[in-house]
Every structure is written in C-alpha cells, then in structure tokens.
Amino acid sequence: MVYDLYVITDEKIGNGRSHTELARQAVAGGADVIQLRDKNLSGRDLLDTAVAIRDITQDTGALFIVNDRLDVALAAGADGVHLGESDLPIRYARRLAPPGFIIGASVSSVATAVRAWEEGADYVALSPTFATGSKDDAGPGHGLSTLAAVRAAVPLPLIAIGGINAGNVAEVIAAGADGVAVISAVVGEDDVTAAARDLRDRIATAKARVR
Ligand SMILES: Cc1ncc(COP(=O)(O)OP(=O)(O)O)c(N)n1
Ligand SMILES: Cc1nc(C(=O)O)sc1CCOP(=O)(O)O
Ligand SMILES: [Mg+2]
C-alpha cells in the first residue's frame, strides 16, 4: 500500500467545499489516500458521503479510509477505517473486518505504537507530530525525535499527522515517515489539486534523497 500523501477531508477547513468535491480535487492532484472525517453528520449522511467518495477513489486507485466508524466503512465498501486511542480497540475491529481490510491507528509514543502493531494495526500515525489548529484536542506535537523512535521500533507504515506542510514535509520524511496525513495544507488551500500535487512532489523528492 502507498500512503505517501494522505488527505483528510474537512468541510469547515475546506471553505464550503463538500467532502466529495475535496476528495475529487485531492485525488486529481495525486493523493494516495483519502480519509472521510466528519464528527457532525448523521450515520446515514456519513454513509451516503462515504459511498460517493468510494466511487471517486475506485476510479483512481486511491485508498479510501473512514475515520472512527467501522460500521460506515464496511457498509460503504471502504478500504479501511482509522481508529484513535479512544475509538473501538483495534483487536475488536479486527474481529469484524474482512481479510485485507485496513485498520489504521493513532499513536502517541513508542509504547502505544508497539501496542497497536501487536493488536493488528496496518499502519500507525504519530498524532500529532507537530502542533495543529485543525483538531481541538490534539495536544502538543511529539516532534521528529519521537517520529524517528517509532520508526525504529515498529515495522509498519508510519504516517506523520499534525501541522505538516510544504515547508516541513521533507524533514518529516527524512525522520522516517512513510507518508504524511494533512488537512489544512491541502484542503485549506484555494487550489486543492495544485496543493496536493506540490506536496506529493516534495514527498517523492525527499524520499529519493533519503532512501
Ligand atoms: C491518519 C490519522 N491519524 C490520526 C487521526 C486522529 O484520530 P483520533 O485520535 O481518533 O482523532 P479524530 O480524528 O477521530 O478526532 C486521524 N483521524 N487520522
Ligand atoms: C485529524 C487530526 N488528527 C490529529 C492527531 O494528532 O490525532 S491532527 C489532525 C488534523 C491535522 O490537520 P493539519 O494537517 O491541518 O494539521
Ligand atoms: Mg477517532
């Protein structure tokens, strides 16, 4: 699986553009993964939106992940679900998921990353890597040293999330991330497609330098 550029949709930060518009524009710019994240939609509206994004990503080969809601992810035919440290535990989600279904996990330390790996996560996301204004309860950033320590401890794909942008993405990749998950650096830009393309190019350049 390729997780280089992982874009999370957010209609507030997206300045009135819908989840589906944001997803379409991000995949046009080369996003490898789209995550649908909305804490306010009803289950039914979230499912309708997830089915629409499923159609968009299916056409392009991008992965589609639903935040928090395993039920909606399964019903929509998404590729996976993202679960945080307060969401459904990974080992229980694994019992309900079909073979090949992706379960991503937020982690905040080497210890929580190792636990997520042991419980069956398919990727881990260091949450947050830097401070972010896009999630109220994210807390302070863990920084590049923690990112590098998680990289050394866990052999899963490692995503950095929180405060990542064109200016710092190269150092995040150099510290060991396989990919970056972003909201504002792509979804908050006027031209979502151009922002995604630019970030993806920077990731490719940084990977060519360090690997
Ligand atoms: C890729 C990725 N990483 C981390 C998160 C955060 O998940 P969580 O801690 O459960 O917080 P919420 O996003 O649910 O508010 C994420 N969504 N995606
Ligand atoms: C959805 C999310 N989760 C985070 C975590 O740390 O768990 S940070 C975050 C938002 C990331 O947005 P931006 O790229 O604008 O900083
Ligand atoms: Mg969550």
Automatic annotation (TrEMBL):
Residues at which 4-amino-2-methyl-5-(diphosphooxymethyl)pyrimidine binds: 35-39, 67, 106, 135
Pathway where this protein functions: Cofactor biosynthesis; thiamine diphosphate biosynthesis; thiamine phosphate from 4-amino-2-methyl-5-diphosphomethylpyrimidine and 4-methyl-5-(2-phosphoethyl)-thiazole: step 1/1
Broad EC category: transferase
One GO CC term on file: cytoplasm
SUPFAM superfamilies with a match to the protein in the record: Thiamin phosphate synthase
Cofactor annotation comment: Binds 1 Mg(2+) ion per subunit.
EC number of the protein: 2.5.1.3
Family matches, as InterPro entries: Aldolase_TIM, ThiamineP_synth_sf, ThiamineP_synth_TenI, TMP_synthase
Keywords on record: Magnesium, Metal-binding, Thiamine biosynthesis, Transferase
Positions bound to Mg(2+): 68, 87
TM annotation in the entry: none
Every Thiamine phosphate synthase/TenI domain range: 5-186
Pfam families cross-referenced by the UniProt entry: TMP-TENI
Reaction(s) this enzyme catalyzes, per UniProt: 4-methyl-5-(2-phosphooxyethyl)-thiazole + 4-amino-2-methyl-5-(diphosphooxymethyl)pyrimidine + H(+) = thiamine phosphate + diphosphate; 2-(2-carboxy-4-methylthiazol-5-yl)ethyl phosphate + 4-amino-2-methyl-5-(diphosphooxymethyl)pyrimidine + 2 H(+) = thiamine phosphate + CO2 + diphosphate; 2-[(2R,5Z)-2-carboxy-4-methylthiazol-5(2H)-ylidene]ethyl phosphate + 4-amino-2-methyl-5-(diphosphooxymethyl)pyrimidine + 2 H(+) = thiamine phosphate + CO2 + diphosphate
GO MF, any single term: magnesium ion binding
Gene3D superfamilies named among the record's database cross-references: Aldolase class I
Cofactors named for this entry: Mg(2+)
Record-listed 2-[(2R,5Z)-2-carboxy-4-methylthiazol-5(2H)-ylidene]ethyl phosphate binding positions: 132-134, 163, 183-184
Protein's job: Condenses 4-methyl-5-(beta-hydroxyethyl)thiazole monophosphate (THZ-P) and 2-methyl-4-amino-5-hydroxymethyl pyrimidine pyrophosphate (HMP-PP) to form thiamine monophosphate (TMP).
HAMAP family per the UniProt record, alphabetical: TMP_synthase
Protein name: Thiamine-phosphate synthase
Gene: thiE
